[in-house]
C-alpha cells in the first residue's frame, strides 16, 4: 500500500484523510472512495478502487487506533516508526497535520464508533425502464424499476447496491415503505 500512497498527490491524500476523520467523528456516513478514485484517475494517476479502499482502511485503522490509545501527534508519528521510512514524506506530513488539527475530536466519539456493526443508508436513486426486445424475444415491452442504494459499511466505505424489480414487486416495496412511515409517525 505504501507504494500506492506514493502515487497519490498530497492534496488528494489530504482529502482522503479529512474524509476519514469526518467519518470517525460521525459527520459523514462514509468515505466516498469511488468518487475520489475517479478524480485521482482523471488527474492521470493509475490507481484502482480496491487499492484506494485498502489505503482508506489502513488510514482509518491508524486514526482510530491512535484515538483509542489517546496518542499525541508526536506519539503517533513515533509509533509509525519503521513505516515512516516506507511512507512518502508528503503522506507523513499530511497525517501529522490532520491528526494535529483534528485528532482530539475523535477521541471522544471513538466509543460510539466501536458499537457500529451495521452499514448506514446514505442515498437512494431509482429509474423506470422498459425492456423492448432481446436476442431471444423480439417484443418484450416489459416495464421494470431499477433501484440503487448508496450504503456506507461499518468501515466507512461507500458502495452502491443495485437491483431491479417488476412493477408488482415495486408496488409491494412502496407499500412497505408507506407502512414504515406510518409506524414512524406514531413514535
What does this structure look like?
Residues 120-187 form the COMM domain. Pfam families: COMM_domain. GO terms for molecular function: NF-kappaB binding. This is COMM domain-containing protein 6. It comes from Calonectris borealis. The protein is α+β, with helices and mostly antiparallel strands. It folds into two domains: 1-114, no CATH class; 118-185, Nuclear Transport Factor 2, Chain: A, CATH 3.10.450. Helices cover 59% and strands 17% of the residues. It is built from eight helices and three strands, in the order αααααααβββα. The protein has helices at residues 2-7, 10-24, 33-42, 49-68, 73-80, 82-86, 89-115, 167-186; strands spanning 120-131, 142-152, 158-166. It has a three-stranded antiparallel beta sheet with strand order 1-2-3. α2 runs parallel beside α7 and α3 (33-42) packs across α4. The protein is elongated and about 65 Å long. Residues 108-116 have low confidence and may be disordered.
What layout of secondary structure does this protein have?
Blueprint (H helix, E strand, L loop, with lengths): L1 H6 L2 H15 L8 H10 L6 H20 L4 H8 L1 H5 L2 H27 L4 E12 L10 E11 L5 E9 H20 L1
Antiparallel strand pairs: 1-2, 2-3
GO molecular function: NF-kappaB binding
Family: Belongs to the COMM domain-containing protein 6 family.
InterPro entries: COMM, COMMD4/6/7/8
Feature tags:
about 190 residues; alpha+beta; Nuclear Transport Factor 2, Chain: A; 3-stranded antiparallel beta sheet; 3 strands; elongated; NF-kappaB binding; COMM; COMMD4/6/7/8
